[in-house]
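The following record pairs a protein chain with its ligand, flavin mononucleotide.
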Amino acid sequence: MIQLVYISAATAPMSKQDLKDLLQYCRQHNPQIGVTGMLFYGNGTFLQVLEGEEQVIDELLDTIEQDPRHTGLQVIQRKAITEREYADWSMGFQQVSERALRAAASAELDDFHEGDFKTGYLREHRIVVQSLMDHFRKQRIKAAGQSELGVDEEDAMINVLHRIIRLSVRALAIMMVITIVWGVLEVGYALYSQLLAPAVTDLRINDIVVIFGAFLSVLIAIEIFVNITLYLRDDVVHVKLVIATALMAIARKVIVFDFEKLTPMYILATAAVVLALGLVYWLMDRQTVIGARYQRPEA
Ligand SMILES: Cc1cc2nc3c(=O)[nH]c(=O)nc-3n(C[C@H](O)[C@H](O)[C@H](O)COP(=O)(O)O)c2cc1C
């Protein structure tokens, strides 16, 4: 693996929306090719750290270099690594503004100002580049262990709201774990009471089906937990996983169907939902595969 750092000049000032679009693309594409890193932008200048397999990084760099959004790309550091420094970021982001620099309160960055963040200066002051990278990487790790902050993080109110949401999601994750443990205990208890039944014949097929239902409920709870943790990691709702969870939930219902009590209409409607969810899942799966192939013609 290698870690590579380059600097470049934006051909036109990047608006928040431009940066958001760029980051959204990177955060979607980089995990598919095993790339991590961080992007700094300020004063019309980019500084980007890229980590990954050498060949992948070289190919990505070729693509990035041809991007018309910037020019004059210069690699200022390239080294072999055994461990990623930005393992948690498919592409972290830091706006280099006077405010962020002063808030950094770092001795090495005391004499560094937003106006200095330009390729000529950065090329000559590698120590500053290293300090910038180190400082903001560590700050991110401290900032509640968030993985990917949005480009809006400079806005104090949005920042607070963002934190509240993440805290709420964390609370949900904890409650979900409690639910899972509770579910496991329930399944254990149901099994235990069945095993204690006077004769094996008492363990009727219906009871077994009920136990299957309880098992599947716990699995669904685990899927929901995974949904929550993935949201915390990526700041994105993974729709494919949500569909998979819905499929599991409906499959659970199908498994415990009591055909003597259900109306044909109910069964048909359930079949339609299963079909629709299955189709959506298949389409999303196909899109991911085709997308990955499109973006990695060598694969
Ligand atoms: C400063 C900058 C950094 C970029 N970083 C990445 C990156 O980390 N990963 C990525 O896939 N594309 C990145 N891009 C976008 C690529 O240059 C390119 O637009 C994208 O890979 C799509 O290329 P394609 O249309 O040839 O598939 C970056 C672009 C710029 C201007």
